[in-house]
Description:
By secondary structure, the chain is α+β, with helices and mostly antiparallel strands. 56% of the residues lie in helices and 17% in strands. It has five helices and two strands. It has helices at residues 2-11, 51-76, 86-105, 113-122, 124-132, and strands at 17-27, 34-44. Strand 1 and strand 2 (34-44) form a beta hairpin. It is extended, with a radius of gyration of 22 Å. The model has no long low-confidence stretch (mean pLDDT 80).
Amino acid sequence: MELLRSQVRQAWSGLGGMVLVERRxxxxxxxxxxxxVERCFYSTSLGQVSAQLLAGDIRGHWAxxxxxxxxxxxxxxxxxxxxxxxxxxxxxxxLNRIALNLLKQEKSVKLGIKNKRLLAGWDNHYLLRxxxx
Length: 133
C-alpha cells in the first residue's frame, strides 16, 4: 500500500490542487425553467491561488473553445454535416481543425476563413501554397 501511495505522489508531483466547478442553469428555452446542475473537476499545477483567478482561467478556456466551435460551424458548416459513423465524424472534425489552422496561418491573402476556404477550392496554386506552408 505504501508503494502505491509513493507512486501516486510521484505521478502527481506537479499537482498544486484540485478545483470543483458547479454550474447551475435554468432552461427557459422550453418554458419549463427546469434547473440543471453540472459539476466539473479540474486539476491545476498552481498552488495557493484565489478562486476568482481560477474561475477566470476556466472561463477563458471555454471562451476560446466556444469561439473555435463557432468558427468551425460558420466556415466549415460542421453542424449541418451528418456523418453516421462515429469515427467518420471524429476524423472529419480533426481534418477541419487542421484545415482551419492552415487557413489561419496563411497571411498572403486578406480574406476571412470562409473565403480563404472557397479560394482554396477554386485556385489550385493557392491550395498548394496552403498545404506546403
